[in-house]
């Protein structure tokens, strides 16, 4: 139900759902997961969570709807958080908290960027949004920041959270490195594909009269990018 809720909601609803409500769910999982849960239950649940990361990534590779692509990406990242919270170690909980904060900023930024393109093109199809670098060159820099943080480029806060979760999962069971590594690779592929498709190429006939980014839109993007930069430079701000 979560991808549908993301796609069908208005932009404010999508941003609040990605940035706040999913984090409340992650916080609830951290608080409610019993510390004495048996290994027989942890194995299938973590296997389902990490397999969900791969399946949502493969779904993103074939999505033509930009908002649906970002929604499935959001679900995939929360699969990593769910698998980390089940292990219940200080390192895994710390990684889950860091990734939730990083994902809240990045996913909300991507939804806002997608809505800006939707307002100008009246469509969410990726093929109809190509060449936006020529129409809105300044927004391309924010698209680049959002795409690179979504794929966890070093030394962003997203990478720190994912590395902590991957290290915890590998320490708990070495087999998990295969699924988490595959999920990270697929995430990098569809994030770069999303950026290349929307920004490069020739403008369509319907988008040649696209108006440039407005001041309020640039301010919204700055309020997303600035916390990501500050947390990347000083991770102690979370604690």
Provide structural commentary.
- It comes from Phrynocephalus axillaris.
- One of its GO terms (cellular component) is mitochondrial membrane.
- It catalyses: a ubiquinone + NADH + 5 H(+)(in) = a ubiquinol + NAD(+) + 4 H(+)(out).
- Keywords: Electron transport, Membrane, Mitochondrion, NAD, Respiratory chain, Translocase, Transmembrane, Transmembrane helix, Transport, Ubiquinone.
- The chain crosses the membrane at residues 12-30, 42-61, 68-91, 97-118, 139-157, 177-197, 218-238.
- 77% of the residues lie in helices and 0% in strands.
- It has ten helices and no strands.
- The chain has one domain (1-238).
- The protein has helices at residues 2-8, 11-32, 39-61, 66-87, 90-121, 132-135, 137-150, 157-172, 176-199, 215-233.
- The longest helix is centred in the middle third of the chain and has 32 residues, at 90-121.
- It is mostly helical and 239 residues long.
Radius of gyration: 18 Å
Number of helices: 10
Number of domains: 1
Strand/helix succession: HHHHHHHHHH
Shape: elongated
Class by SSE composition = mainly alpha
Question: What proportion of the residues is helical, as a percent range?
Answer: over 70%
- Tell me the distance between the termini: 32 Å
Overall average pLDDT: 87
Low-confidence stretches: none
Classify the beta-strand content into a percent band. Answer: under 5%
Number of strands: 0
Described by strand count, sense and barrel closure, the largest sheet is:
none
